[in-house]
TrEMBL record:
<dbReference type="InterPro" id="IPR014782">
    <property type="entry name" value="Peptidase_M1_dom"/>
</dbReference>
<dbReference type="Pfam" id="PF01433">
    <property type="entry name" value="Peptidase_M1"/>
</dbReference>
<dbReference type="GO" id="GO:0008270">
    <property type="term" value="F:zinc ion binding"/>
</dbReference>
<dbReference type="InterPro" id="IPR035414">
    <property type="entry name" value="Peptidase_M1_pepN_Ig-like"/>
</dbReference>
<dbReference type="InterPro" id="IPR024601">
    <property type="entry name" value="Peptidase_M1_pepN_C"/>
</dbReference>
<feature type="domain" description="Peptidase M1 membrane alanine aminopeptidase">
    <location>
        <begin position="239"/>
        <end position="452"/>
    </location>
</feature>
<dbReference type="GO" id="GO:0016285">
    <property type="term" value="F:alanyl aminopeptidase activity"/>
</dbReference>
<dbReference type="GO" id="GO:0008237">
    <property type="term" value="F:metallopeptidase activity"/>
</dbReference>
<comment type="function">
    <text>Aminopeptidase N is involved in the degradation of intracellular peptides generated by protein breakdown during normal growth as well as in response to nutrient starvation.</text>
</comment>
<keyword id="KW-0378">Hydrolase</keyword>
<dbReference type="InterPro" id="IPR038438">
    <property type="entry name" value="PepN_Ig-like_sf"/>
</dbReference>
<dbReference type="InterPro" id="IPR027268">
    <property type="entry name" value="Peptidase_M4/M1_CTD_sf"/>
</dbReference>
<protein>
    <recommendedName>
        <fullName>Aminopeptidase N</fullName>
        <ecNumber>3.4.11.2</ecNumber>
    </recommendedName>
</protein>
<feature type="domain" description="Aminopeptidase N-like N-terminal">
    <location>
        <begin position="110"/>
        <end position="199"/>
    </location>
</feature>
<dbReference type="InterPro" id="IPR012779">
    <property type="entry name" value="Peptidase_M1_pepN"/>
</dbReference>
<dbReference type="Pfam" id="PF17432">
    <property type="entry name" value="DUF3458_C"/>
</dbReference>
<keyword id="KW-0479">Metal-binding</keyword>
Length: 886
């Protein structure tokens, strides 16, 4: 059962940021008792309320939020209320008989975790109980003021059958355990830190506990406990190490120490997103905990470490200082993504991490920002908050935080963070409070910077450079302009990192008038605050090539007229590794789009040999590590290319991309073979940086080589597949073998299935590898949809088949007869009744329909309309579909 909408007369109404009002009551203390059963759970609560006289009149009733609760009893200050004292609708409990302005309310409700397929609130996963309360899931557990500015301390008693649920966990410290009648037992937990209800957690189950400790900077010993299913006991080491490294890093980098004496992480297999930072008791998608070298790839290991770090970092940025209301979500998410990115950069490679992040940002966030769901990082309105856990709030939010750092410097940023915690520890605050702390700690005016929170869409940054040879000056003119979908655009405060690359490939000095170019810095952060500004650099003794927006210092679309030669020159020489990579991307993008236009007209395709040579040079540049080389040869993806066009013809884009990949594969065959050979680590598997870079390059080379489907390359992939002692190599080889139909494909898939059918996370890979492969069409999709290992009830499985097909298999999804769209819409309709949050993620694949040419656009739109027609559509999917069609 979900909140139903279109069968009621009125459509769901949005909430607006401008309407914020403080709560009518405060809650200081909460006590909860859970009686967990196979057929229903009883939740009793005792809550201490105090009227907020600034907001509500004395005598006005208390209104609490709830969903799918069966109310058994309501009492105030120990007196049970009769029917006239309270009333409940599907979503509100109103209590009228209040003895005064502060009182204790007790309620008892019955809920049904055993049939909760929405995975929000209290639910069951693999027979265990767990919770997910962010954003508004706590109200599915008990009547409450379920909003983040209501912060309280919690005492929680959990009672359940002792044999089935030997572990009973909640937030904070375990203070009592006792036996109960009938083979049951109880555990009592107390969380001394005030928290909003979205950080509440409860877990009950029969789990293996992997233990460790961490000694903090003040010498306290913290117990670390990682809970997993018994069969996964040997996949916890990396998660534990990741947690210890995160704790250390946050002390060293931000001076932040963990507060409780216990930190628990529980891995569950049915989870709507990645993980959840509940105070002292994180609940994780098992995908981001479990890792063993034969089941998880290098990328999976890195993702586990990053997500563990992210949730850990939330303890300060999110939990100790939380959000006043959900419009402020980026306050904790943008900041925490920024922090985890810095952590990963420190632990792996700053350059590689930056390129991976920007690649993701452009593919997902830029697409969202130019589509129907575009919103500022601090949205102005929402219908269903869960729909706003977006790459805009997270990833663009992190870019905005990164701009503070670029403007203020690392030390200035740290000063701002220190002041933020000094002012707001224990509070629920806003993005403006964060900005004020950054400004005040540094004596800077950051008023204009607020526009990054107010405006949606991706601004364009236009750069025009002019070299004056007689005067030896170089003038750079920067102009910012409005995104198409932001009619009220005003100029942002934008840091533009800049350099000039001289004819030898070395950076030149950037001297303002009167400065000595030989002593001037070679990189400057230019602060663009007007629509247009110019800067002139002196003593520029030869014609330079400009390198603009180094490190991707602002989340914008850079527009600059540059010749293919200049781009190739930067691709070969820019000292800024991001811009070096990006010059290649700009070069490829121009080539691919021109080829796609030719393909759309049915014209023959040819590739400029200079492009091939540029890639060859990179591949053979021994100053680059394997990861950078593999990034340098990856072409802009379908999403990035289609954003550059209106009326996209997907077939022509795919044809152009295939053509370039196949040409590079043929022309660079010798180089790729040599690179693969040199890069592949020899001997037993190792996880050091060098080996990880080596595998990344070797597997990218194999991937590119296999594009032509030649027998010797297939044999090479078969050999790697058979011999692999780690998932990175095994998965990469399988990824090559599935691209071309034949016995090699079926045999490899069968072997992989036989070996791993008992391991859910590896089976997700088996589904995903097929779903993104070239021969995978709608018929193949339907076969896997009916496979005995597929279920719509597990979000990871849905993402690996439906999600990958809809968002990564452009051939199959954009089939010209519309069958791909129909198949995905069928899945959305089915999911909507089971799990609206997952349904509303899948349906977004249809969002960019306006960007496509006919017949694709009409076919996509028709499926959106079909979904909108469904009776009882969840408000999650309703919001997405109506904005897409609106
Ligand atoms: N804060 C959670 C996300 C909750 C999503 C709610 N639909 C995970 C994170 O960002 O760390
Ligand atoms: Zn987060």
């Amino acid at each position: 059962m979900t909140v139903t909408t279109s069968d009621t007369a009125s459509a769901p109404q949005p909430k607006y940021r401008k309407d914020y009002q403080a709560p009518g009551f405060w809650i200081h203390e909460v006590e909860l008792w859970f009686d967990l059963g196979a057929d229903g759970t009883t939740v009793r609560s005792s809550i201490r309320f105090e009227r907020n006289a600034a907001v509500t009149e004395p005598g006005s009733p208390l209104v609490l939020m709830g969903e799918e609760l069966e109310t058994l009893r309501v009492s105030v200050d120990g007196k049970e209320l009769g029917a006239s004292g309270w009333s409940a609708t599907a979503t509100e409990l109103t209590v009228r008989d209040l003895p005064g302005d502060s009182f204790t309310l007790e309620t008892e409700v019955r809920i049904h975790p055993e049939s909760n397929t929405a995975l929000s609130g209290l639910y069951r996963s693999s027979g265990n109980f767990c919770t997910q309360c962010e954003a508004e899931g706590f109200r599915r557990i008990t009547w409450f003021l379920d909003r983040p500015d209501v912060m309280a301390t919690y005492r929680v008693t959990v009672t359940a059958d002792k044999t089935k649920y030997p572990m009973l966990l909640s937030n904070g410290n375990r203070i009592e355990e006792r036996e109960e009648e009938g083979g049951r037992h109880s555990v009592v937990w107390e969380d001394p830190f005030k928290k909003p209800s979205y950080l509440f957690a409860l877990v009950a189950g029969d789990l293996h506990c992997h233990r460790g400790t961490f000694e903090t900077m003040t010498g306290r010993t913290i117990d670390l406990e990682i809970y997993v299913e018994h069969k996964d006991a040997d996949k916890c080491d990396h998660a534990l190490g990741s947690l210890q490294r995160s704790m250390k890093w946050d002390e060293e980098t931000f001076g932040l120490e963990y507060d409780l004496d216990l930190y628990m992480i529980v891995a569950v297999s049915d989870f709507n997103m990645g993980a959840m930072e509940n105070k002292g008791l994180n609940v994780f998608n098992s995908k981001y905990v479990l890792a063993r070298t034969d089941t998880a790839s290098d990328a999976d290991f890195e993702a586990v470490e990053a997500v563990i770090a992210h949730e850990y970092f939330h303890n300060w940025t999110g939990n100790r200082v939380t959000c006043r209301d959900w419009f402020q979500l980026t306050l904790k998410e943008g900041l925490t993504v920024y922090r985890d990115a810095r952590f990963t950069a420190d632990k792996t490679s700053e350059a590689v991490k930056r390129i991976d992040d920007v690649q993701g940002l452009r593919a997902h966030q830029f697409a969202e920002d130019s589509g129907p769901m575009a919103h500022p990082i601090r949205p102005e309105q929402y219908i269903e908050m869960n729909n706003f856990y977006t790459s805009t709030v997270y990833e663009k939010g992190a870019e905005v935080i990164r701009m503070y750092e670029t403007l203020l410097g690392r030390d200035g940023f740290r000063k701002g963070m220190d002041l933020y915690f000094e002012r707001h520890d224990g509070q629920a605050v806003t993005c403006d409070d964060f900005r004020a702390a950054m400004a005040d700690a540094n004596g800077r005016d950051l008023d204009q910077f607020e526009r990054w929170y107010l405006q949606k869409g991706t601004p364009t940054l236009k750069a025009v450079g002019c070299y004056d040879e007689p005067n030896q000056t170089y003038t750079l003119e920067l102009t910012q302009s409005a995104p198409e979908n932001e009619p009220h655009f005003e100029p942002t405060h934008m840091p533009v990192s800049f350099g000039l690359v001289g004819p030898t490939g070395a950076d030149m000095g950037l001297a303002f008038e009167g400065e000595d170019a030989s002593k001037a810095p070679t990189n400057r952060v230019l602060e663009l605050r007007e629509m247009t500004q110019t800067w002139t650099f002196h003593g520029v003794c030869a014609r330079p090539v400009p390198s603009v927006l180094r490190g991707f210092s602002a989340p914008v679309n850079l527009e600059m007229e540059r010749s293919q030669e200049d781009l190739a020159f930067l691709f070969a020489h820019d000292s800024d590794s991001f811009n070096r990579w990006d010059a290649g991307q700009t070069l490829f993008k121009g080539v691919l789009l021109a080829l796609a236009d030719r393909a759309a007209k049915g014209e023959a395709l040819t590739l400029d040999p200079a492009v091939v040579e540029a890639v060859r040079n990179l591949l053979n540049d021994e100053s680059l590590d394997g990861s950078l080389k593999s990034q340098a040869m990856s072409l802009p993806g379908f999403s990035v290319l289609s954003q550059a066009r209106t009326h996209v013809n997907p077939a022509a884009l795919i044809e152009a991309r295939d053509f370039v990949i196949e040409t590079l594969s043929r022309e660079l065959r010798g180089d790729l073979l040599a690179q693969r050979k040199a890069a592949r680590p020899t001997g037993a598997y190792r996880a050091d940086k060098e080996s990880i870079h080596g595998r990344r390059l070797a597997n990218a080379a194999l991937g590119l080589l296999s594009a032509t489907g030649e027998d010797d390359i297939i044999e090479m992939a078969e050999e790697q597949f058979a011999a692999a002692d780690n998932m990175t190599d095994s998965q990469a080889a399988l990824g090559c073998l599935v691209q071309i139909p034949g016995s090699h494909r079926t045999q490899a898939l069968q072997a992989f299935y036989e070996r791993w059918s008992g391991d859910a996370l590896v089976m997700d890979k088996w589904f995903a590898i097929q779903a993104m492969s070239r021969p995978f069409d709608v018929a193949a999709y339907e076969l896997l949809r009916a496979h005995k290992n597929f279920t719509m009830e597990n979000p990871n499985r849905v993402r690996s088949l439906v999600g990958v097909f809809a968002m990564q298999n452009f051939r199959g999804f954009h089939a010209q007869d519309g069958s791909g769209y129909r198949a995905v819409a069928d899945a959305v309709l089915e999911l909507d009744s089971l799990n609206p949050q997952v349904a509303s993620r899948m349906v977004r694949a249809l969002n960019p329909w306006k960007q496509f040419a006919a017949p694709w656009s009409d076919l996509m739109k028709a499926q959106l309309e079909r979904i909108r027609e469904k009776k009882g559509l969840s408000k999650d999917v309703f919001e997405i579909v109506s904005s897409a069609l609106g």
